[in-house]
Amino acid sequence: MSEKRLVHIVDDEEAIRRSAGFMLRTSGFAVETWESGVSFLREAKHVDPGCILLDVRMPEMNGLEVQRELAARGIGLPVIVLTGHGDVDTAVEAMKNGAVDFLEKPFEKAHLLRALETGFHRLDRRGEELASAREAAVCVAALTPREQDVLRGLARGHPNKTIAFDLGISPRTVEVHRANVMSKLNVHSLSDALRIAFAAGLGGAG
After folding, report:
1. H helix runs in the chain, sequence order
2. For 1, what's the count of Cα atoms within 13 Å in the CB-facing half-sphere?
3. DSSP state for residue 39 in the 8-state scheme
4. Is residue 195 over pLDDT 60?
């Protein structure tokens, strides 16, 4: 693998940033360190994708608040939570909020590497989902506006007659558009066409 996996260490303790950073760099990872959740959030929209090693106890904003704020901003990077003794309840809450894992300080290298493997697997899957959504959007964009209307109707579960009524065209014309949709999307079944439609974001209410 040519590009190193990136880990963002967000911890107010310099000793942790230094020791964890050294451990990860010698294990082949790229590392960026942040001295607070606030400083990370300031740049979070622009940082390179990677796993976040997030301390729970920090001034200004604790780890849970940072995690919630990342979710609110739509930043879906995998989070691994670092906790001190007695923070297990907090760690459980972090897991409920979507954290990959939690590590109790001082943590073992093997446990950290295992958690990162899970996190990067999640990140890769997310990348695949984004890629398939982009590809689906390109496919749908190649359809005419009327063909997109028909596909949207199909994605909402409407039969040809309902689609025809909604669009003010004949059921026969809907059938023609539907055949063109299948041909242009290069699919042979309605389920495959719907999968592309849903990936492209069609099929909402209305």
Report:
1. 14-26, 37-43, 63-72, 88-96, 109-141, 145-155, 160-167, 171-185, 190-199
2. 7
3. H
4. yes
Q: Which amino acid is at 146?
A: R
The tokens describing 155, both together, are 């994605």
Q: How far is CA 174 from the centre of its chain?
A: 36
pLDDT given for residue 1 in this prediction = 39
Any idea what DSSP says for residue 105?
S
Query: Do the Cβ atoms of 9 and 32 come closer than 8 Å?
Result: yes
Instruction: Supply φ then ψ for residue 195, to 5 degrees.
Output: -60, -45
Q: Within a 10 A sphere around the Cβ of 41, how many other Cβ atoms?
A: 19
Task: Give the pLDDT confidence score for residue 78 in this predicted structure.
Answer: 95
Q: Which domains does the chain have, with CATH numbers?
A: 6-131 (3.40.50.2300), 142-199 (1.10.10.10)
Q: What is the dihedral of CA 16, 28, 104, 122, to 10 degrees?
A: 130
Residues contacting residue 109 through CB under 8 Å, at least 6 positions apart: 23, 27
Angle between helices 190-199 and 171-185 (to 10 degrees): 70
Its pTM stands at 0.66
Contact 102, 82 (CB under 8 A): yes
